[in-house]
Design a protein that fits this description.
about 220 residues; alpha+beta; three-stranded antiparallel beta sheet
């Protein structure tokens, strides 16, 4: 099992994300290019569009890793994707994991980690050991400009910028807010920049150690 603070992945060079995104407090400048089809496309670059991009970013990465990917069409339990090996899912031979995907264009970067505010509801859907299979937060960092999210040529398809993972099974769920009207209550989590999500590190998340955290067979 890779350590949850480093993930066994080398740290990125200092300042790399700042060069990609600019200072964490930099205001959003919005799309930099005019395009007729974009102007006529409802919701281009909005939060829903960004969220969809984040989910597809993960699907592309998992597909490259030769994993089966199943979408949870109705996200009522804090899961967007279930990833697994071909075969009888959930067994030792064909384990599966689940992921909650978030996407941001304004990452709060602090040295070796990224601070991210999760709604308490979403946090509680990831924290603790009471699950049939391991769950992870996948945090996708995308450019502010939606025209920079992808770049396609005859040689390659480039998706920007990167995704990171976090496991919260060693943390306890939080009590619900006393004031039920405070549905926007949040909990800040700290996603290590070393936990870069790659084809190799995706496979590492199927390690037996994570399954033992939730009592999976």
């Amino acid at each position: 099992m890779t350590d949850s603070t480093t993930g066994g992945i080398p740290h990125q060079p200092d300042g790399l994300l700042q060069r990609l995104f600019g200072p964490p407090s930099a205001p959003s400048s919005g799309p930099q290019h005019a395009s007729g089809w974009a102007q006529g496309s409802m919701g281009f670059g909005d939060n829903s569009h960004r969220g969809a991009f984040g989910e597809e970013f993960i699907r592309m990465l998992a597909t490259a890793a030769n994993l089966d990917v199943t979408r949870k069409e109705r996200d009522r339990v804090g899961v967007d994707w279930q990833l697994g090996y071909a075969g009888r899912r959930g067994t030792r031979r064909f384990p599966a994991i689940e992921a909650q995907v978030k996407c941001t264009s304004s990452p709060d970067i602090h040295g070796d980690h990224i601070r991210y505010k999760l709604k308490v509801k979403n946090y509680n859907e990831l924290a603790g050991p009471d699950y049939e299979m391991p769950r992870f937060l996948f945090l996708v960092l995308a450019p502010v400009d939606p025209f920079a999210w992808s770049h396609a040529t005859e040689d390659h398809l480039l998706l920007s910028h990167a995704a990171y993972w976090l496991c919260l099974h060693d943390q306890q769920p939080l009590p619900p807010p006393e004031n039920k009207s405070k549905t926007d209550s949040t909990r800040t989590v700290y996603v290590p920049r070393a936990n870069l999500l790659t084809v190799d590190s995706l496979h590492d998340l199927f390690a037996e150690d994570y399954r033992e955290l939730v009592g999976a067979s």
